[in-house]
Amino acid sequence: MTRIEVSLKKLEDRSYSIFVGHRCLAELERILSELELKGSVFIVTDDNTNELWARKIKKHLEHISECVKTISIPPGEEQKSLRTIEKLARKLINMEADRTSTLVAVGGGVIGDITGFLASIFLRGVAFINIPTTLLAQVDSSVGGKTGVDLVEGKNLVGTFYQPRLVFTDVDFLSTLPREEFLNGMAEVIKYGIIMDYDFFEFLEANVEKILGRDPDVLVKTVSHCCKLKRNVVEDDEKESGLRRILNFGHTIAHSVESASNYRVKHGWAVAVGMVAATLIAVGREIIEPDDARRIETLIGRFGLPVSLPENLSSELIINGLSFDKKRRKGVLHWVLPRKIGSVEVVTGITRGEIKNAIEKLQGKSL
User: Fold this and answer.
1) Active site includes 188?
2) Domain assignment of residue 302, yes or no
3) Which residues neighbour 247 within 8 Å (Cβ) at sequence distance 6 or greater?
């Protein structure tokens, strides 16, 4: 297995390890024993993942804790609400959870975000372990400590920064992932190459077929590298006051697209379109060369991700949704635009006209 250390010691030691491997579930007991968990363990998962993986994981956890219980909720983004957090907290109380308890998230980004947020506020903070089972969660949301739930006004508007004690990733979890969900995570994978690693972008260009074929060796390399890249950013800027903002490439429009579609458009698909939109704006400003812009769109398309928006999705609704973006600073929206493959810059002053022009170009068209 690959072990990636995340060092966070500026105020207090919140460092942890990320483990990435293939068919390594048998290693889970040994790895978790290093944490010396003392209290009860509560698995938080969704109904689909419970059937596929959580029950198997529970058997391993029962070797290191005398009390392991499972709480399963329906799947879907609609579960990311304060109502769900209250229900889960009350269940934990009724199941006699206390400050020595550990919450274990088993699932995708929704479960990770919910469980991490719950762990950060339940009894003013309990231990949290993340076992991501989707590609999106493995390469992105499980790393960095962002937790949260949605409001009607937009995604992740209520949340905390709360680091897990450990992240355990087995790419074998991806074997049961539907193709659409796998591609949902590929948008974040491609993002890393665009924003900070030209060589990784080339690696992706050369390995499209192997990745789509879920070659385990290539997947371990891909997931591990993404985790290392995000680790480097998080160690430098844990709470998104500077460098970490580059990880939002494609997300400014993406979150608004998700909200405008009532979350019918999946996160990764919205990020793919958002990356193309940001690239269109960069082309218009002559920040990026058209050849690099075409390579970005081409790679996104080769992975079967969208490079255009449905024409029935209102550009005005998308633009208006930007006013609720949590990344605004004193009313100013910061945009991450590509300068070249492997490098981006954070800019302000993007006009409503530029945004509308990019969105309209995306409605049925590409670069």
Assistant:
1) yes
2) yes
3) 144, 191, 195, 230, 233
Q: Is residue 242 part of a domain?
A: yes
pLDDT at res. 366: 42
d(CA 358, CA 352): 10
Looking at the domain assignment, is residue 367 inside a domain?
Answer: no
The pLDDT, as a whole number, for residue 155 is 80
Low-confidence ranges of the chain (pLDDT < 70): 9-12, 323-331, 364-367
> In terms of domains, do 330 and 206 share one?
yes
Amino acid identity, residue 9? K
In a shared domain, residues 220 and 332: yes
Quote the CA–CA distance of 307 and 105 in Å, as a whole number: 32
Active-site residue flag, 225:
no
Catalytic residue among 80, 146, 225, 245: 146
User: Where a domain ends, among 133, 148, 176?
Assistant: 176
Q: In the chain, how many domains are there?
A: 2
C-alpha separations of 134 from 223, 234, 342 in Å: 11, 21, 25
Known catalytic membership, residue 267 = yes
240 is a catalytic site residue = yes
The pLDDT of residue 367 = 42
Chain centre distance of CA 285? 29
The β-bridge partners of 3 are: 19
Is-catalytic flag, 146? yes
Catalytic residue among 188, 235, 258, 297: 188
Q: Which of 240, 258, 295, 361 is catalytic?
A: 240
Q: Is 251 a catalytic residue?
A: yes
pTM attached to this predicted model: 0.89
**CA within 13 Å, CB half, 334:** 19
Could you list the beta-strand ranges (E) of the chain.
Answer: 2-6, 16-21, 41-46, 68-73, 102-107, 127-132, 146-151, 154-161, 166-170, 335-340, 343-347
**Of the residues 176, 199, 222, which one is the last residue of a structural domain?**
176
- 257 in the same domain as 314: yes
Judgement on whether residues 163 and 194 belong to the same structural domain of the protein: no
Residues spanned by the domain of 206: 179-362
Q: Is 327 exposed, middle or buried (0-12, 13-18, 19+ CB in 10 A)?
A: middle
